[in-house]
Amino acid sequence: MKITIDDVLERKGLSRYWLAVEIDMRYHNLAKICNGKTRSMSFDVLERICRALQCTPNEILKID
């Protein structure tokens, strides 16, 4: 699985820092998710990311 949060952020002209503040998450933890360095993500975090970016999970999670 590939995390494509950075692609969505770039397309919308937003930064990881903006997203971290918007979803009330530490930047370091968001960076781990974006870099694929974490093995899991809660549905709550997934929902907060999707709401902030106004996207669906299909736009930020790609199955290879």
What attributes characterize this protein structure?
single chain; 64 residues; mainly alpha; 434 Repressor (Amino-terminal Domain); two-stranded antiparallel sheet; 5 helices; globular
Proper CATH architecture: Orthogonal Bundle
- As an assembly, this protein is single chain
Query: Mean of residue pLDDT?
Result: 96
Radius of gyration: 10 Å
- Main sheet, how many strands, which sense, barrel? 2 strands, antiparallel
Q: Tell me roughly what share of residues is in helical segments.
A: 55-70%
Lateral arrangement of strands in the main beta sheet: 1-2
Principal-axis shape: globular
CATH superfamily: lambda repressor-like DNA-binding domains
What is the CATH C level class, in words? Mainly Alpha
Distance N terminus to C terminus? 6 Å
Derived from helix and strand composition plus strand pairing, the structural class reads mainly alpha
The fraction of residues assigned to DSSP E strands is 5-15%
Structural domain count: 1
Total beta-strand segments: 2
CATH topology: 434 Repressor (Amino-terminal Domain)
**Helix-strand topology string:** EHHHHHE
Describe this structure in words.
With 64 residues, the chain is mainly alpha-helical. It has a single domain (2-62), classed as lambda repressor-like DNA-binding domains (434 Repressor (Amino-terminal Domain), Orthogonal Bundle), CATH 1.10.260.40. The chain is built from 5 helices and 2 strands, in the order βαααααβ. It is globular, with a radius of gyration of 10 Å. A two-stranded antiparallel sheet has the order 1-2. The longest helix has 11 residues, at 43-53. The model has no long low-confidence stretch (mean pLDDT 96).
